[in-house]
Amino acid sequence: MNLLVVGASHRTAPVATLERLSVSTADLPRILDRLLAQTYVGEAVVVSTCNRVEVYAAVAGFHGGLGDICAVLAAEAGCAPADLANHLYVHYDEAAVEHVFRVATGLDSMVVGEAQILGQLRDAYHVATEAEATGRQLHELMQQALRVGKRAHAETGIDQAGQSVVTAGLEIAGNRFDGSLTGRPALVVGAGAMGALAVATLTRTGIGSVAVTNRGAGRATRLAEAYGATAVPFDDLIVALSTVDIVVTATAAIEPVLTRETVAAALALRANSRPDTPLVLLDLAVPRDVDAEVAELPGVLVIDIDRLAAELADGPAATDAAAVAEIVSSEVASFLVWLRGADVLPTVAALRARADEVVTAELRRLAQRRPDFTDEQRADVAHTVHRVVQRLLHSPTVRVRQLAAEPGGDQYTALLRELFDLEVPGTSQVDTVPDIAAHVSHPSEGAQR
Questions:
Q1: pLDDT of residue 288
Q2: Pick from 305, 392, 421, 422: CA 20 to 30 A from residue 267's CA?
Q3: Is residue 8 located within the same domain as residue 146?
């Protein structure tokens, strides 16, 4: 099996495309089942966040695996695979491992260095494990990715230099209020993980009063109590909007929560109390919580994922990013040693099993030709033949393990299967290196990362 990553992110796709690809937590098990039902997909993890949708998979072949994954993504997005081609990136084997480690460390995030992705990866891995969608390769890959992410934040300054998406969005919002949000009342719509991060960030920034609303009132109440905020009934959303200057939306709704009608009604109420104060809506949800037509209303600024991606600064200092990149590079090399070594074990086991089959068959024929042998003589012959075979196989099997740990080592394993005509589940014959660019259009390698 080979590792394959197929995905789209804020770097390659607009919010509209990410919305179509977005997978809710409730739908993840169903998507995993669809992926595993494909011919070439043996293991799968699906990561769906506000700025990326990615499939990590162990596949029996590059071309077949890519086709299977693209077909599932396209079906979920309600379009033809060709319509997604320009927005997808593909990483295979070593490049796939590097990409996952870059994601885990925050190097591939919209806000470089942000730590929220670690929790999102952990959640995606947990769902896949519960759905029995992960096996040996993805278990190891995800566990190592989480470890590498923690190591990067512990050993470098990227943790301090990086921001959260909420912090970055609030910095952009602050430009509408002379660079400061101090004293500005705020409302958070949604009480999930991102909503909680928004409340925590807002209460640390010296902003004014903070209110929380959510369709599930209990979650809003608990979140508000944890941070000294105020819980607002969801039915009072319009009134709540009319009393604040900053709104952060982060729900899991599949339809816009803030429609043009809702925001227009709130603006009408604001006309007397806050006539000259803009209303800033920071939409961190995918699919979007704020209807696209809301941006047309006078006095409203909508900051969504597209705008964040366009306006954010580079993030942490170059030295911090370089230090993390070095960690990623060394960890990728270590993982590949394990991966190549793990890949050769089934082939070695198949070779020894084939040898045992041959020895057993020959001993059976010997017994038929020499029925006069005593049980002791048969045992001596069997012991000797087994020793000869094991000694003959020892050096080549040890050597192929060593070669498999080197760059291009998978070719030795494939060659061993070819020479001895071994059938190992989940493997294929020697392949040429896949021409990824010929199958999926995407930006330059630098843009992918």
A1: 86
A2: 305
A3: yes
Q: Per-residue pLDDT tens for 380-414? A: 888 898 888 888 887 877 777 667 666 666 677 77
The answer for 315, left when phi > 0, alpha when psi is -120 to 50, beta otherwise, is left
Residues 131, 38: contact at Cβ < 8 Å?
Answer: no
Are residues 439 and 359 located together in one domain of the fold? no
Average pLDDT over all residues of the chain: 83
Residue 342 domain boundaries: 336-419
Q: Which of 361, 363, 395, 331 is nearest to 148 (CA)?
A: 331
Establish if 88 belongs to a structural domain. Answer: yes
Mean pLDDT of 25-29: 91
pLDDT at position 161 over 70? no
Which residues belong to the active site? 50
Q: Measured in whole angstroms, how far is the alpha carbon of residue 358 from the centre of its chain?
A: 46
Chain segment 208-241, per-residue pLDDT in tens: 899 999 998 999 999 999 999 999 999 999 999 9
Task: Write down the pTM of the prediction.
Answer: 0.65
Same domain for 187 and 259, yes or no, is yes
Tell me the CATH number at 40.
3.30.460.30
With 0-12 CB in 10 A as exposed, 13-18 as middle and 19+ as buried, what is 162?
Answer: buried
Q: Which pLDDT belongs to residue 41?
A: 95
DSSP states of 315-360 as a string?
-S-HHHHHHHHHHHHHHHHHHHHHHHHHHHHHHHHHHHHHHHHHHH
SS3 label, residue 246 = strand
Residue 307 and residue 178 share a domain: yes
CATH number (domain holding residue 284): 3.40.50.720
Judgement on whether residues 79 and 94 belong to the same structural domain of the protein: yes
Q: Could you tell me if 266 and 195 lie in one domain?
A: yes
> In this structure, are 183 and 68 located in the same domain?
no
User: Can you tell me the distance from the alpha carbon of 126 to that of 115, in angstroms, rounded to the nearest whole number?
Assistant: 18
Tell me whether residue 373 is in a domain: yes
Q: Give bridge partners of residue 280 from the DSSP assignment.
A: 246, 301
Q: Does the pLDDT at position 10 exceed 90?
A: no
Do 349 and 397 lie in a common domain?
yes
Q: Is residue 116 part of a domain?
A: yes
Number of domains in the chain: 3
CA distance 114 to 164: 5
Look at the alpha carbons of 396, 402, 403, 405 in this order and tell me if their dihedral is positive or negative.
positive
Spatial distance between the Cα atoms of 4 and 91, rounded to a whole number of angstroms: 6
